[in-house]
Amino acid sequence: MNKTEIINIFTKKTLGLTFVLSAAAFAFAQEKVGISGSVVSKSNQPVPYASVTFSNKANKLLSDAALTDEKGQYKLDLAPGNYDITIEAIDYQKNVINKQITSAGNIGAFSIDPEKSATNLKTADIQGVVITAPSTKPYKVELDKRTYDPSQDIVSKGGNLQDVLQNVPSVSVETDGTVSMRGSSNVKFLINGKPSALLGIDDGANALQSIPADQIERIEVITNPSSKFEASGTAGILNIILKKSKKTGFNGSVLGTLGYLPQTNLNTNLSWRKGKFTWFLNGGGGYRESKNTQRNSAYLSTGDFRETNNESISKSKNDNYNATGGLVVDLTDKTSINASGTVRTFDGTNTGNIDYTNYAFNNAITTRNRTSLGTNNNLAFQGDFGIDHKFNDKGQNLSLSLSLQSNRSNNGSDINQTQNNLFDLQNLIDQKTKNKTLIGKADYELPIGENSKLEAGYRIDVNNNNYQNLVRQKTSTLPFMLYLDDYTYNAKYEEMFNAGYVQFKSKIGNLGYQLGLRNEYSTIDINYMNLAGMRKKPKRITTISSQVSF
């Protein structure tokens, strides 16, 4: 068994591992017993809709509560132990008693006394109730970005990142997964503010299907990047913010979808938070097939009255798996450290078949057939470590992070063409890419008054990329494969990137503005060699960028 087979087995067992861990966690839960009881007044009359809270003195996670019915009775399941029982009801005094729960059964009636004031004589009618709830709008506009919340959009439920992006205003997603903003597909993706192995480096369109919508907290659409982001000439930035569990105890969720052609997705989120420690493990996977058929017919009157017909059929299928595990430790109330690791795989196959038929004016018929087979295999790893510190509760924060990423991608293409049922052309393309990246970041935020904020930071990127492109061709006149010298090459790309930024945000009345300055310094080395010759082209670029936004 080779290394690739071992890795594929590991990644394809990710979902099974998450469910095993989930079952193991529940196995440790203490067995509960069913109890019942009632709440009565001093005159031994039942008290309806009274709140009965059982607080376990040994383990708060075993606490529970119930509400009495119209007859003053209640039922619930509790783990045996010592409990403080709090009884509360409108127009009655709160009563707290202690009781040991040992076995199932009726634990008797609890008595509560009426309030000493006259309010117990009759509950006064109120004039009205004002209920305040957060806005359900999934989209909001801020000074330097627009934010989309997929949890508020039922259309995105059960989908993946590609499905979510289809509902984001100003973002377009093609059927093949290509994302564009303002008419350009030169879009930069970030995960939690930095490039991530979860999306990969060179196959972002395919990797969109590997992030379930259930893991996404929000999407930041940045069409006019501030000085906080690198000065790259993109159409915009999509910053994907993933969820972080804040619930105490063991929490888990499983989300699955089944669609036509077929389309299947299954995702599991597990977390355990107790005291200063939070563990989390997320795993998911999916399989998708698609088919596209196009037929065209044209009549050309350019001297020979030619008629042309063609039919194009393409099919694709892919599967992806990902797993992320990590730990967050709260050192103090204001300082925490975090560490996490991610592995992701993607395998895809695309087949195509195109038939051409040309009818000339002299009844001559020419037929051509073109078939293609494309394969894509991607494996990515990422390790992250970070420190977050809050100086106070007013928003003065310092964040330090370090990320190590590795990505390996293999792409293949086999194209065959025949004319009048005779062999005409064959091209074989094999592309291999290996990327290693180190990213270090430091970001500082300082609020100034109620409406202003100063931000500053530093970032270093070290990239080491290797590319191999092999192109072979066979024609009807040359019946054996030959490498194409101009297109077969090995290339190595190394980059050291340093950047620092400072920006100031504020507003005067309803007018918000932002001033920023960013300085970048990068050293790039390129070593390129193909079969036709060799070239080496080192390059150094120093970039100073400034931006003013209102």
From TrEMBL:
One of its GO terms (molecular function) is siderophore uptake transmembrane transporter activity. One of its GO terms (cellular component) is cell outer membrane. Residues 1-29 form the signal peptide. Residues 157-236 form the TonB-dependent receptor plug domain. It is a multi-pass membrane protein. GO terms for biological process: siderophore transmembrane transport. Its main location: membrane. It comes from the Bacteria. Gene3D superfamilies: Carboxypeptidase-like, regulatory domain, TonB-dependent receptor, beta-barrel domain, TonB-dependent receptor, plug domain. It is found in: Cell outer membrane. Keywords: Cell outer membrane, Membrane, Receptor, Signal, Transmembrane, Transmembrane beta strand, Transport. The keyword Iron does not apply. The keyword Transmembrane helix does not apply. Residues 389-531 form the Outer membrane protein beta-barrel domain. This is TonB-dependent receptor.
